[in-house]
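From the pipeline queue, job 12 of 40. The input is one protein chain; the requested action is below.

Action: predict structure.
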Amino acid sequence: MAVVSLKEIVDRAFAERYGVPAVNIVNDLTLEAVLAGAVEANSPVIVQTSVKTVKSIGYDVLYAMWTSMTAGIEVPVTLHLDHCPEREVITQCLNRGWNSVLFDASTLPVEENQRQTVEVVAEARRHGAHVEGEIEAIQGVEDGIGSDTESHRQSLQVALTFIETTGVDVFAPSIGNAHGVYSAKPDLDFQRVTDLVEATGVPIALHGGSGMTDDQFTDLISRGCAKVNISTDLKITYMKSNLAFLKTAEEKNKWDPPSLFAHVRTDVMALTTGLAAKFGSAGKAW
């Protein structure tokens, strides 16, 4: 296949009730490994970049990495800017070719969030891009964005008005989910997903996926969570894989960076193929 729009990927997943891994990469190695894992699983994949990653690597370099690594790729892939409260960063990414953005104005009053989201959607449309929206901050800090305090959950009608007024392509509700590592099995509001989907027909993005149980994933995906965000699991896999290899290297006094990279690549690929199998997207490439 090739690079496609976020909407094409999530709309198919939504219609067939499977989830697509939306994985936050942190560098060139994790980007290549996630893409390779998607190819191995014959799965669509959403590659996500945080504001922190975009700024640390640079817009031009990161996008050049993306275009180089996806040239001739055999599965549907798309590039998404995750949790971005900064309009300037959104504009820079859209100008360079990102396929979609999550405008995160969840700390603003809903009315102001809605007003600005309408503007972001219009801006994205001029680039042929798509927008994910949210009105409640998902608990937990991710790459410097967010809060450890759970935000007030808006009424269903407020959420419906936001979705209908802004025209967002994907909606990320607060359902008791959280970014980071859960201290216990999360208590999730499954019915809220069903209510949103039945009222709008808009695909749902599930945030805070790292640490949810298989049964929770299966239930939520069956209700319309077509985009499943994974960030913490990628970071943990990446760091622990490096740590394990370096401990062995120290014991053996053998220092070979290419072997380290290959080891980490294998583990990140395995994470990606496992997510595709768990969420039902394996074998769904077109």
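Job complete. The beta strands are 20-24, 45-49, 77-84, 100-103, 130-133, 140-142, 145-147, 170-171, 204-206, 225-230.
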